[in-house]
């Protein structure tokens, strides 16, 4: 509660003094003085009652606005045509019963925000690296409409909006996978654009600090909606941007005050809320609330009464003011104070309705963008007040406007009239696209503005120069036996990364990434070898400075240790994994993480990485439900390969031996960076130490395809398939079965997922070519006989190994770790989940019994000798 003013005269003297500073030296000087005063109060233990929010008005005063240099009227004509063509494209897509959908309201509210950027600020890629723009996904019709005026798209393209199969046409939202030469970033899963944009700016500075790709004054623009900011990913990383002082980052938040169903903050003020959040994290905040038609009214507000009304009105009412018109606004806003009502006495109701919002005023938006691109030392967020469905007649600011895909003819005509579209009544029902002739002033103006900024956007670079490796040395040692030395596959992958960093050709492009726990993965040697990147360097002496592997941070550090944020670390990986496209400089990122906290934690981002055609390595370290044995239910991964299988261009492997890891990584570098195929790799590694054999002869092809024979016999009774940590249990089971005079052949399955993909491809080919020579799947080629039972055991759910059942023509049994994980010894856990050698042997014996290869007495004796408990509860039920 504020103290009563005990000395109003003194208060006025202070106010006069600060007013004098503002007038003579500017706001920045006044702000500096107040900051010093606040610091003095803090020394006495007082807490100044400053707010993180400013009054609900434009941050930039009229006298401080940078003047917009272009032709306002020409730009309005062009913008109106873009609005019309975007609208018509969606309406035409929904003239039949195909129910293709599309969005009108979002771009209608954001058209000016984009238009000013395209005309003055967004740089293309001619003779420079282009600005990176994360468009608000639902605004895609407007971006297509601009490309139509530019001549990149034609009417047929627009008519194929959301028809992505038969043509293919224009994708519903920004999807690089579907339009690889156009869209750069997949953003429409709300919340992903903001976090990916922040880490893109972070990686841009990282690459520049290392001297690889100078950032110069290149910008990352992120367009998003106010409702979208409720997603945890939207604001979860804004603290990083503030700490890192990412002045190359600009957020533009389209505050049209509405979500899909209703107001974002009907009882509050979303712009004020966001201002406090961003300013508190160290961002520059620029509010663009009111358009220039408000300026003469606000100039009359000498006593601040209009501002008082603006500060207290809630967003639900602001929505009403646009939905219900000028008379409603006069009565329910201005009339709340007689002196404020007097300010608008000369305005008609229609004049009041036309009082524009800041996000629809190109002058105000230009001033905000100009200040943002010229700001230093902090990221900038622009909070622009707009109206959802702007210009759509009776649907403007309607609670259902987000879902609008069709408009009445009256509303279409209203839209045409509002934006002066040259379509007569006789033609309007045909919903024609409008593009002036190539030599028209509009098209020439449009093209010249883009030429001055470096060319047309969006455009995406689809390839870059192939990479090379100086030698196979980083892999060769791991092809040999480890002898008596016991290592884990996690140690093997770290060794590969360490040696690749030393390669004179590719070394500078290798980037190890961890959220935290590099020591857990045995990566601490890299602290000193290559350093941890920090934009601030290292302003302290680390506690372990006297140790060999001390915690070294530096501005040119190579390793990215992003803190305990899997979403953030993955976003950094994605930025580096798409550097071949966005920087024309391929990077090879290795992101190591607890496999349980990979796809399960950030699958939406993983899916977007696939869409973006990312290239790099994801390492699910400490994987396996029974292998990360001490951590328990929340940490033990038994399903990440099932999740990875949902991403079409993710190649996933579960290797057992170091030579398998080396072979897979080597193949990955070749496929992604030499052959330039659009894949990324997911490789699970484990923290269990054991000896590793020498690489067998002629197994490389099988390792890559997903399976190869490891222990062969001239004759055998059963096949055992093992994967990852459980392959060694299959080898033990082979020895157990041998005691019962049962011969087993053992196969190492490095990827059930790839075996399934191969099976689906061959199966489809055969169906489409029934009269031609039928092909065999790789599994069928390996298992040519159909009378040998097959047992598959993995450290993952049974559904992982079940994927190849259609391609096995003998009896097939799968064992896996279905159920919740828990903490105990590895052997105890494997016995509990029934994937240990005894359980594998049991399954093999039972399969032979069902195939009449052994009799009832034999199986009872074998079970007794194995100690099989028939009353043991199901592990997935307890």
Task: Kindly list the characteristics that best describe this protein.
single chain; 878 residues; alpha/beta; six-stranded parallel beta sheet; five-stranded parallel beta sheet; 36 helices; 18 strands
User: Spans with pLDDT under 50 lasting ≥5 residues?
Assistant: none
Q: Output the radius of gyration.
A: 32 Å
**Quaternary class:** single chain
The helicity comes to: 40-55%
- The helix tally amounts to 36
Q: Say how many strands there are.
A: 18
Global outline? globular
Class by SSE composition: alpha/beta
Strand order of the largest sheet: 9-6-10-11-13-12
User: Strand fraction band?
Assistant: 5-15%
Largest sheet report: 6 strands, parallel
- From the N-terminal CA to the C-terminal CA, the straight-line distance is 56 Å
**If you average the pLDDT, what whole number results?**
94
Fold blueprint:
Elements: H1 8-25, H2 27-43, H3 72-93, H4 105-120, E1 132-134, H5 140-150, H6 155-159, H7 192-209, E2 220-225, H8 232-235, H9 238-243, E3 249-255, H10 270-280, E4 284-288, H11 295-299, H12 305-312, H13 315-324, H14 326-332, H15 338-343, H16 349-353, H17 362-373, E5 380-385, H18 409-418, H19 425-428, H20 441-453, H21 473-476, H22 489-501, E6 510-514, H23 525-529, E7 532-533, E8 553-554, E9 560-561, H24 566-577, H25 579-582, E10 588-594, H26 599-611, E11 617-621, H27 640-644, E12 650-653, H28 658-674, E13 680-684, H29 700-705, E14 707-711, E15 718-722, H30 727-739, E16 744-749, H31 752-768, H32 778-782, E17 790-793, H33 798-802, E18 812-815, H34 826-833, H35 837-850, H36 856-866
Helix pairs in contact: 1-2, 3-4, 3-5, 3-20, 4-17, 7-24, 13-14, 22-28, 24-26, 30-35, 35-36
């Amino acid at each position: 509660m504020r103290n009563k003013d005990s000395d109003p005269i003194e208060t006025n003297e202070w106010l006069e003094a600060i007013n004098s500073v503002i007038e003579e030296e500017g706001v920045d000087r006044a702000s500096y003085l107040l900051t010093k005063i606040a610091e003095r109060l803090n020394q006495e233990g007082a807490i100044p009652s400053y707010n993180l929010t400013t009054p609900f008005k434009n941050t930039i005063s009229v006298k401080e606005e940078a003047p917009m240099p272009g032709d306002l009227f020409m730009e309005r004509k062009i913008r109106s045509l873009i609005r019309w063509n975007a609208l018509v494209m969606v309406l035409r897509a929904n003239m039949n019963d195909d129910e293709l959908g599309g969005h009108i309201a979002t771009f209608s509210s954001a058209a000016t925000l984009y238009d000013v950027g395209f005309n003055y600020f967004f740089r293309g890629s001619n003779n420079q690296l282009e600005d990176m723009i994360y468009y608000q996904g639902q605004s895609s019709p407007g971006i297509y409409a601009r490309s139509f005026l530019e001549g990149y798209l034609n009417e047929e393209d627009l008519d194929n909006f959301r028809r992505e199969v038969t043509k293919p046409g224009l994708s519903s939202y920004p999807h690089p996978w579907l339009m690889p030469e156009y869209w750069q970033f997949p953003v429409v899963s709300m919340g992903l654009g903001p976090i990916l944009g922040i880490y893109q700016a972070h990686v841009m500075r990282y690459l520049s600090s290392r001297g690889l790709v100078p950032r110069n004054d290149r910008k990352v623009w992120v367009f998003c909606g106010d409702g979208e900011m409720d997603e945890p990913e939207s604001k979860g990383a804004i603290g990083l941007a503030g700490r890192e002082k990412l002045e190359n980052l600009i957020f533009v938040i389209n505050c049209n005050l509405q979500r899909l169903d209703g107001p974002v903050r009907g009882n509050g003020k979303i712009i004020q809320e966001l201002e406090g959040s961003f300013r508190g994290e160290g961002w520059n905040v620029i509010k663009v609330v009111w358009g220039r038609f408000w300026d003469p009214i606000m100039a009359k507000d000498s006593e601040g009464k209009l501002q008082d009304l603006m500060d207290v009105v809630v967003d639900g009412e602001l929505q009403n003011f646009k939905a219900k018109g000028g008379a409603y606004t006069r009565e329910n806003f201005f009339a709340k104070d007689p002196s404020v009502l007097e300010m608008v006495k000369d305005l008609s109701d229609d004049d009041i309705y036309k009082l524009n919002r800041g996000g629809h005023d190109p002058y105000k938006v230009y001033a905000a963008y100009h200040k943002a691109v010229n700001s230093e030392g902090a990221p900038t967020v622009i909070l622009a007040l707009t109206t959802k469905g702007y210009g759509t007649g009776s649907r403007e600011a309607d609670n259902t406007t987000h879902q609008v895909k069709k408009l009445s003819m009256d509303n279409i005509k209203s839209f045409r009239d509002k934006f002066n579209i040259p379509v007569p009544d006789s033609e309007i029902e045909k919903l024609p696209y409008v593009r002036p002739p190539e030599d028209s002033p509009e098209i020439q103006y449009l093209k010249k503005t883009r030429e001055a900024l470096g060319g047309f956007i969006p455009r995406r670079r689809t390839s870059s120069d192939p990479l090379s490796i100086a030698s196979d040395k980083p892999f060769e040692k791991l092809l040999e036996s480890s002898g008596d030395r016991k290592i884990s596959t996690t140690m093997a992958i770290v060794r590969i990364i360490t040696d690749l960093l030393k390669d004179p050709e590719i070394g500078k492009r290798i980037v190890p990434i961890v959220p935290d726990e590099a020591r857990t993965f045995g990566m601490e040697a890299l602290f000193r070898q290559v350093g941890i990147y920090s934009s601030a360097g290292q302003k302290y002496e680390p506690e372990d400075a006297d140790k060999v592997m001390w915690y070294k941070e530096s501005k040119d550090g190579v390793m990215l240790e992003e803190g305990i944020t899997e979403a953030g670390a993955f976003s950094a990986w994605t930025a580096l994994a798409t550097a071949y496209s966005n920087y024309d400089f391929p990077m090879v990122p290795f992101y190591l993480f607890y496999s349980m906290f990979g796809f399960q934690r950030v699958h939406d981002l993983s899916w977007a990485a696939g869409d973006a055609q990312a290239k790099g390595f994801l390492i699910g370290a400490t994987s396996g439900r029974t292998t990360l044995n001490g951590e328990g239910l929340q940490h033990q991964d038994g399903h990440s390969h099932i999740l990875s299988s949902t991403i079409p261009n993710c190649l996933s492997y579960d290797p057992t031996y170091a030579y398998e890891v080396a072979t897979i990584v080597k193949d990955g570098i070749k496929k992604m960076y030499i052959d330039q195929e659009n894949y990324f790799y997911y490789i699970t590694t484990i923290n269990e130490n054991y000896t590793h054999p020498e690489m067998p002869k002629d197994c490389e092809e099988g390792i890559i395809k997903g399976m190869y024979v490891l222990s062969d016999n001239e004759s055998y009774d059963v096949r055992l398939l093992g994967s990852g940590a459980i392959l060694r249990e299959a080898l033990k089971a082979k020895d157990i079965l041998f005691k019962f005079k049962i011969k087993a052949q053992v196969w190492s399955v490095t990827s059930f997922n790839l075996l399934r993909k191969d099976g689906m491809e061959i199966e489809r080919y055969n169906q489409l070519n029934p009269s031609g020579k039928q092909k065999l799947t790789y599994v069928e080629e390996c298992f040519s006989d159909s009378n040998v039972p097959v047992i598959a055991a993995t450290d993952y759910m049974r559904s992982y190994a079940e994927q190849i059942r259609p391609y096995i023509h003998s009896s097939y049994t799968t064992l896996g770790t279905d159920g919740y994980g828990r903490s105990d010894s590895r052997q105890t856990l494997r016995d509990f989940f029934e994937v240990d050698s005894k359980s594998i042997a049991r399954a093999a014996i039972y399969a032979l019994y069902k195939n009449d290869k052994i009799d009832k007495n034999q199986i009872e004796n074998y079970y007794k000798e194995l100690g099989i408990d028939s009353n043991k509860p199901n592990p997935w039920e307890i």
